[in-house]
Amino acid sequence: MALNLKRKRAEDLESRKNPKLDEVMDVNSENEEHGENESTHDDSEDSGSEGEGVEWSWKGRRDASKSKNPAPTGEEVRAIRDATDLYRSSSFKLQVRDKILTPCCPTVRPKLSRAPPLEKFLLKLHTFLMQLPAVEPQHPLEAARKLLKKGVAVPYCLPLPTEDTNWKVSFEKPEDITLVGSWPNKVSVKAKDGLNTASTSLFRCQTACSKKRIISTRGFSRKRRSISPHSPTRFEAPRDPRLTKLMDPVTDFTKLNARVCIIPTISTSSPISLHRLSPSHANIRVNSGEEGVHHPSPLYNNALLTSYSPKPHLLAMYNHIQSIPAYADALTLLRIWANQRGFGEGSKLSVKGFENAGNLWPALLELVISGEEPSSSGAVNRKPLGKGLSSYQLFKAALSCLAKHDFIKNPALVKSIATHKFPASEYQEHSSATLVDSSSLVNALAYVPLGCIDMIRHEAWKTLQTLYSSSLAIDPFTDVFLHDHRDVATRFDIVFQVDLSKAKARKLSPHESLDFGSATNHLLYNMNYILRKALGDRIHAVAFLQPSSTSDAYPSTSSTIFVGLVLNPTHAFNLTRPALAEFQELWGSKSEMRRFKDGRIAESVVWDVKTADERSHVPAMVVRHILQWHFGLSEEHVQTWQSAYDSVIRLPKEIATKYVQGAGSAMGFKGAMQAFDRLVKQVKALEGQIPLSLVNISATSESLRYTSAFNPVPLTQSLACPINIVFEFEQSAKWPDELKAIQKIKLAFFEGIATGLMNSVPGTKASVVLGLGGYHGCQRATLLDRILDDHGPMPHVVVPKKRKQAERKGKEYLDAQEAKEVYDRRFIHAPRHHRAVAALSHQYPAFSGTCRLVKRWFASHWFLGGHVSEEVVELLCAQIFVLDGKYVGSDADIPENTLSVVPSTKERGFAMVMRFLSEWKWEEGGLYVCLYGPKKEGEGEGETGAKKVEPKASSGGVWTVATEVDKDGKVWTKGGPDGIVARRIRALAGATWSYLQTIENGTFNVQGMFIHPTQDYDFVVQLNPSVLPRYVHNIAANEGLLGKGKFANARAKDQDQDLVLPGFDPAKSLFTDLQRTYSDTFRLFADPYGGDAFGAVWDPTLKEPRPFRVLGGFSSVPVKKESEKAKDKIERLGSGLIKAVVKQR
């Protein structure tokens, strides 16, 4: 936190007051909970670096320094560095303190004032359990039948008992009951989605398990039967069916939102030797056909060890809280971070393997604080960081450990006083990933699929990038702790919905199924493992997602699971896969022998794609093939939405097929770029035929920077979309000094270029087209500056002040002002913007597709062109990719960790832009986009960040989107959107974002996001689609019309070339006329991509009398039927084009 040191200057040193530095007190301090005075300072080395509870005094400094401004002490310097270097800002530190670590924060921790009803219930429960009568030993099936009559079903573990089972079950009252979990140590954190906070009781069985009972799950079956006889409650076992908890139905503890679980555990006096529970020991007997060969059962053994661990974990956490001042707060920060990213319980999709993984987070903090156990292999182990770190430092250290430590290749055993009983090599050989704390032998990562471990590593990297980057437009605190990051649309590049009802593994191991506790767990773990192996370096993570809130010991696992891929764009879209070990076994019929360019002959997999868009489908092709080959799931059981997104930015199949068949040149962006390059060569070859040399030809069209909503196609009768370019000639002193004369000279230049092209290139037709008139068509900046300058057009003539003010209100001045804005935007900003956006399209593979989808969304909701420019849409998309601009314009390769933060597919990029638009508070400040390079310190702060906007209904653009060359942020937003349109954009983006969440419930339809609601308009102008040239782009085009008339003849015949009119769009022309004519009457909206309707909203001020003024553009007397007259005029203006004007309200 920035320090506010107040020093009073005075000549008399004795009159100076002792200044004090009020430092933020640590709300998590132990003394604060007891109401003790916290104004003293401990100078020990173990003090936290946050400066908790410290009152700074300057005693003795008068004698130490006689200067007027004495240097700060070491403690003050450390506090200053914490605020600037550690937290990056003082506001971040205050937010962490006030919004999370405050004990009374209702959104983070349960209120202790509501605890008495829960404590009263726990005392009654303790008395009830200790008074339960014993039940005699009996056959497991007989006991289950008796309980079934009472409405209690006993969920025995696999293999289920039969009539020939020779072991029995019984019940005896517990020898001890202990309250465990996070509640006793007051480190509980509220669960997501309103789920209850667990308050857990420990049920320790008095009857010890024998050595034989650990064979073939007998011990777990006896545990389940022991908690069943007197229990009207339900069972719960989210991760492992063998680790059953008993859920008490009482949940009303005076709004405490807590639940009580009873966990049966194994007594410490059990004769089971711990060496029999090592990861390499075989405790499951399966007839595999091999005499005397029994395979290890690491997961089963880990489940047994978990039955010993609740009380040791409780005591270990208590010792950490007492010995490490910041431990409890660091654990709170870590759990909140995990809950916000689905690494826990919740009704929304959560990452598989982390449900009920509460002991993982204390083990991770302990690893950071205490370090790793020394390894016999000589590997470099993590060193301890000590106990004196602050809570925020411990939190960042834990994230760094998750991001950098490979728990799969390097097992992590926390350093303990006594050496761990099982060596790290044993865990590495028999466990997929390993993290063992110091108080038990339980592997906290035993149940987590490998792809999900990659996912938490990826999330830790993303969070560290957010915390370390000081130039992000988003608030780091909000992004790290407040935002819900569980939505799959912005989290994963590709999302699959997999129906498991028909899934069957090609190779099935009964022993492994028993070791996992259920066939479903085994199937999902193997599926994740094989997908991770097949995708290889194409991905950063492959995560399995399921709702984790279940209440059954044998959960009726949903037949649907979601698979999320975080792609590595460097390798994700490669068409060839090199050979790996067991290559043919992994790929099956897809594997084939191929000869490569370097002469090698090897097994490989090649994916066939026909278009550039299909290349982004390669990872999805891999997933579909693997699920088909290894698990028998056909394409109808594996759903993804990539093809549906592609369809909204493609021509209809009927039209696209005709283009491909009749194409005489390359199609799409490649064809447009080739045509532009040919034109540049042809124009440069005209040197000598025009008076001035051509210096540069700049492209300014979206079709030449890969961001147009639809692929460019050759000009036809139905699609005549021109591509704009800018010619720059050499300077000359022979230009005239009058603007109109310059216009005529420029027209002569264009005529010369057109004639030269037609003479040099046979078959070429070139025409000179006049613009809107005035100064718009062709300008000279010097003369415009003279008109706009304070000295007037003739600097040597002194102009009176009154005359100067009158000239500023004249038509010439206003026209020149508008022309100067057009000149700057068209000839200075547009070419520069084009080059920057084109570079981003090459640097980030998903940027182009994201722009195309977002433009399609803006157009389909009737904003693009009329209210929102295409350039500002590209800036909105760019800020998702460039972040702080560190690698913009750099030749250096972008690190993979940085690339993993930005979207790798257009679908994810589109979702991120929609979320941003739904949350962007443009009224409070603008947006700064690092489009041309890294953001310099202080840049973009004063201009846009702190500038508030007070929009009016009739004002110009309210968005402020600034760049390095546009400090004011108004080049592309001066004309719109205004306040009304900007609020509607935010509302529709919020609705789109909410609709994206329906991916989880299976009702999501991509096209539904692009269907515009029209019920809010006062009237709708319906157009005749049969006369609209761009109707083929309509989001919901009538297929019957596409096969008739001009739409069927996609390519014009030679004899009809004269009918091709570049840029001719009657719907757009009508929209422009109506918008200009009735700008004071109603607000008009339309879809420029084949829209067959306009929407209009009446200006509400029309209902009130207006003062009379000359050339007001409207009648000053309210008329009841004015709307009817306006509709008649509209129909007359659009005669032959308008089908009907429908009044809606």
**Proportion of residues in extended strands:** 5-15%
Instruction: Return Rg in Å.
Output: 36 Å
Determine the number of helices (DSSP H or I, runs of at least 4 residues): 38
Please report the distance between the alpha carbons of the first and last residues: 56 Å
Helix content: 25-40%
How are strands sequenced across the largest beta sheet? 5-6-9-8-7
Question: Which structural class do the helices and strands define?
Answer: alpha+beta
Main location: nucleus
Subcellular location: Nucleus, Nucleolus
GO molecular function: RNA binding
Keywords: Nucleus, Ribonucleoprotein, Ribosome biogenesis, RNA-binding, rRNA processing
Question: Could you describe the 3D structure shown?
Answer:
The protein has 1145 residues and is an alpha+beta fold. Helices cover 36% and strands 10% of the residues. The chain contains 38 helices and 27 strands. It has a five-stranded mixed sheet with strand order 5-6-9-8-7, with helices on both faces. The longest helix has 33 residues, at 811-843.
